[in-house]
Each structure stands twice: as C-alpha cells, then as structure tokens.
Amino acid sequence: MSTATKPTVATVWLDGCSGCHMSFLDMDERILILANAVDVVYSPVVDPKEFPASVDITIIEGAVSSVEDAHKAELIRARSKFVISLGDCAVTGNVPAMRNPYSPKELFERAYVENATEPADANARRMKLPVVGVPALRPHATPVHEVIKVDLFVPGCPPPADAIWFVLTELLAGRVPDPSALTRFGK
Amino acid sequence: MGKTITIEGVTRIEGHARISIQVDDKGKVQDAQFHVTQFRGFEKFVEGRPYPEMPSVMARICGICPVSHLMASAKACDDLMAVEVPETGVKLRKLMNLAQLVQSHALSFFHLSSPDLIFGMDGDPKLRNIFGLINKRPEFAKDGVLLRKFGQEIIALLGGKKIHPAWVVPGGVSAPLTAEKRETILASIPDALARAQRGLESFHEVAEKFPQEEEVFANFPTMFAGLVTPSGGLEHYDGTMRFVDENAKTVAEFSNPKFYSDFIGEAVENFSYLKFPYFKPKGYPEGIYRVGPLARLVVAERCGTPLADQELASFRAKLGRAPQSSFHYHWARLIEILYGIETIKKLLEDPNILDTRVRSRARPNRLEGVGISEAPRGTLIHHYKIDDNGQMRWANLIIATGHNNLAMNRGVRQVAERFVNGHRLNEGMLNRVEAVIRCFDPCLSCSTHALGQMPMHIELRGPGGELFDELRRS
Ligand code: SF4
C-alpha cells in the first residue's frame, strides 16, 4: 500500500487525553480516503516502529510533561519537515498544565500516599513512589512550542475532525492552512 | 545471575508503557512487570476549583471514554447536591453512555485488535493495523469505522460535539432530546445492528484459530466485579456493585457507592504510575479481580435484550458461566455492542424520553459525594470532598483500567513464561505480549497513551547492562 511518492504523516501523543487522536479518527469515511493519499508511518494506531528518519507532516497531541516527552519532542523536530501542535494541550498546556501550581512531590503525596492503602504504613508507601522504569515529571507541563519550534497551531479541545481534515488536505495541496474559521480555543 | 528483558518504546518515542521480564540463568522467567509511565495529578490539582466544573475537567482524563468520566463525575456531583435526577434525565444520560460503549468497543475490536485476528499473531507487522485492514478487508474495516461513527454521532446529537460534550451536568443534562433527533438516531439503528452482527460472524470465523492464545492470555482464576441491575441484569450506568468468585458466585455486594472503600483498596508499586486496586477483604495481592466486558457478563445473570441474550447463551454454552481466559474479552465486547444498540433503541422508544424536565437544581447539600458507573473498560469511581463554598478540597479516582492492573501484570508473566525461553527472543513472543494487554483494552490514555498497540524494542541485558540480544520491530 505504500509507494515512495506518497507524503508521510506521523501522529504522536505526549501528555494529552487522546481526545485529539480520537477526533482524527472522527474523520470517519475520510480515513478511508486518507489511507490512500498518505502513508501514516508512525502513530499509536498503526503498528509502531521507530520514528522514521524523515517525515513530511508530524501532528503532536498533548503538552510536554515528563522528561521523556521533552526528549521525544526534540527527536520529532529533528526528523520532521512540518510540525503541527494539535489541540489546546499542545498549543497552551491546557489541562496537563493545571498541575503546575503544585510540585510533583505534592501531586505524588496525594496519589500514592494519601489515596492508597497498601503498604499499610504511610511511610512505607512513601518509600514506594513510582521511580522504576517510569520517566520523571518535569516541574511544569508546558506547551510544545516552549520546547521545539512549531510550524502550525490548531487549537480546540479537541479540534473538530473537519478542522483536522481541512488542515491536512490544504497542506497536501501545498498551501499553508488557516484553520481559525473551523476551530478555536476551548471549542 | 539473572537478566532483565526490557520491552520499551522505540527510541523512547512511544514509551508510555513498557514491560520488563526477569529471567534466571537458564533463561526461565522469574517475574514480569507492566509499567504505566504517565502521571497527571487530577486528584490534587482540582483543589480549589468549583465542583460544577468537575464533569468537564474530569472528562479530559480520557478522550476515548470521556462520557464515562462525565457520568461518574456528574453522579458524584448529584450526590454532593443530594438531588434526584429527573427520570428522563437519567434515561438521556444512559443513552449517551451506551452510545459511547458502542463506539469505544468498536474502536477496541475493529481498529485495534481485529488486525491480530485477521492477519494472525505472526502476520506482517507493517500491515497489521487499521490501514492494512482497509486494504485487505475493506467491508469489514468499514463496518468498524461506521459502527464507531454511529456511537459518536449520537453523542454529538445529544451533546453538541463528539468528544468532550458539556451536556452532562450536575443534576441531570442541560438540554432535552428533540423528536427530530430521536428519529435520526432511530433511523440509524438497523444499519448499526447489521454491522455489529457481521462483525460477530467475522470474529467467529477466526477465533477458533487461537487455541494457544486462549490458553495463556491471562488465563487464571480471579474474582470479577461490575454493576448489575436490582434483578441481576447487565448494567452500565447505575446499580449494585457486585463481586463474584471464579465460579460466578456472589462474594460481596453494595448499592450505596459511598461504601466502595470498604471493598476496594489501592496498592502502590514503585514500577508503575498506575496503582493496583484489590478486593480489600482478601488483602493484597490475593484480592485480584477483573472488570470490563468479560467481568460484566460474569457478574450479570443476563443482558436483557433479545439478540445479546441469544449470543450470551452461545457464549456460556461454549465457555461456561465464568470463562477464565482474558482472550474472551473480545467476544464479550461484541455481545455488549449488540446490547448497547438494542438498549439505545429501547430507550428511544420510551414515551417519556422527550420530556423536558431533565435537570434538578440545588446548592451543595453534602460535603462528600461518590459516583460509580461502568466505563467500557470497567467500573469507574469518582469520590469528591468540597468545602462550604462548594470548592473542591480533595478527589479520589479509581479508573476502570486500574482494576485490571494486577491481572494484566500476571497475564504478561503468563505469556512470557510460555513464549520466552532461553536467551533468545523472537517476534512471536513479542507480539503476544502486546496482544494479551490488548485483550483488556486498557484505556491507557487514562493512565498512559499506548493506544492498543505497543511499541516494541526488546533488549535482553545482563546484570552489568551488557547487551545479549536485541529485537526491534520496524
Ligand atoms: S486538547 Fe483536549 S482533547 Fe486534545 S488532548 Fe488535550 S484535553 Fe484531550
């Protein structure tokens, strides 16, 4: 199904709720058309592979929240020709950034010490905070463009499928789209 | 001296979940862990915010099942206000909840899991996805895409948008259903039913080909938990929370949500951001239980709609009253799709579904409230405390996927024990480790993001970190 001439598209989740990806799938029948027009080379919905060496269009959902998110963002930038911040989390920080007034320590204290029952002793729970094989949180969740250069912003929570379709088809036609008629912050 | 095998995100691009497997000198599996690698802090950062905001904020936990969070959150708020939601308000909430059940199950089965079944567990990883399916089985893929659309369209008709609608509010819903919208949805039902039935047929054609998977995909006795109606039928919005043993015998029940913490404890493990709920009376980790479609069909006596009950009868005739293999989550999910569509029709045919009294209003009358509902993946619990000004002081959330955390970890270990042998790795092992997790349809965006398919890069390392073997899927 892949030919060398088809433009390549990647979609990536950082710290978001996956709603932006679901809105992508809400293109419904248009997904069937898209499947023929582009190669989706990397995405949570295709069998994952290493992020390719070069991708034409990369869509990012979510804020940059963990050290791993930041690392991924940099890698994506280095390997993508055009990067889109999709949705309010990527564009502004939105919901993930609501944790910013608190330190990771306070957040963990609530989740793993106060709101847990095993081990039975609170101090024993404190000793068991998740650190093995999980990435550390950055002090603050930030929009994607605080970490890397972004080429196009598509706000919305999530941006409607029509806006995503418009942006992709315009880009494929060689134009830089203005999605502001189809979506806005908080929509 | 043992070794640890790590399965992690390719170049750490997708590493929202990873797996570690420890083997001993002889290459025999000692242990395995499923790491969930995202943390968001909702239980803390809602502090100080007005409680009526909660449904909209909490829905942003997850874009796959936002409606579930809307339900559990709105119900916790109803409890804070101590109000009764008008009858039609309840029915409309149920309608949206079932629409989501159908769309989410369609996504899990058609978009994410069926590629394994259609292309085979050892099929070409480049084709084994929804886009490959569009090419190989266009009609089947289209059924999946349009079934998901059926559910999403109902949500949009009721709530104004497909994802994160603001229509479910404390006390009920914000707007009634119009006759015109009712007709639109009713007209789409026969088509959706036909697609669901074709999906079941396709499933039966291929399901027989996976006896090995059936045998080791998290196949062990556990308790099951889920909501049931007062007469013991399948339920997703409200009802009695029931725990049964591995033979489907009831072990415990409670109908007032506030008692959940007498039955459910939450354990912390240092290798995962996702906690491990357990059945408290049995302790940790003996109190392992499963939730979700398979569990709901075990705890309930019946579905209560004709087509779903007919399929449930064959399910039980073939697999017994309480199937232990998590491979059967797929079939259970398809039965629930039938049930969802049939029940949506039933609700719409109810004469008072167009009633305009759909919301009760009140100030908060309690300082603490709990809401429980069934998300597509299992029981979801929201527990809030507020102050006299109606500002949030504290929240505890037990997410559907969390309940299955112990079973998923044990399932990964079971698959590893069967397929990891010696010091060599192979693609078949890798793929089945992904697939066992996929059976549970973990809503990893509730906790991480690996939607169904896990990124795979396996390294077999010695105790000093030296690389013994490596397997990469590209
Ligand atoms: S912008 Fe909204 S829909 Fe998108 S990831 Fe963030 S919360 Fe979810």
Summarize the structure.
The complex is a heterodimer of chains A (187) and B (474). With 187 residues, chain A is an alpha/beta fold. Helix content of chain A is 33%, strand content 19%.
**Strand and helix order of chain A:** EHHEEEHEHHHEEH
What CATH architecture label of chain A applies? 3-Layer(aba) Sandwich
Described by the principal axes of the CA atoms, the overall outline of chain B is globular
Number of strands of chain A: 7
Assign the CATH topology of chain A.
Answer: Rossmann fold
Number of domains of chain B: 1
Low-confidence stretches of chain A: none
Largest sheet composition of chain B:
5 strands, antiparallel
Can you describe this structure?
The complex is a heterodimer of chains A (187) and B (474). In chain A, 33% of the residues lie in helices and 19% in strands. By secondary structure, chain A is α/β, with parallel strands linked by helices. The radius of gyration of chain A is 19 Å and the shape is elongated. The mean pLDDT of chain A is 91. Chain B is an alpha+beta fold. Helix content of chain B is 42%, strand content 18%. In chain B, helix 4 (87-119) runs antiparallel to helix 6 (138-159) and helix 14 packs antiparallel against helix 15. Chain B is globular. The model of chain B is unreliable at 8-15 and 445-457 (pLDDT under 50). Classes of the chains: A alpha/beta (187), B alpha+beta (474). At the A-B interface, helix 1, helix 2, helix 3 and helix 5 of A face strand 3, helix 1, helix 4, helix 5 and helix 6 of B. Bound molecules: iron/sulfur cluster. The site of iron/sulfur cluster has 13 residues of chain A, from helix 1 and helix 4.
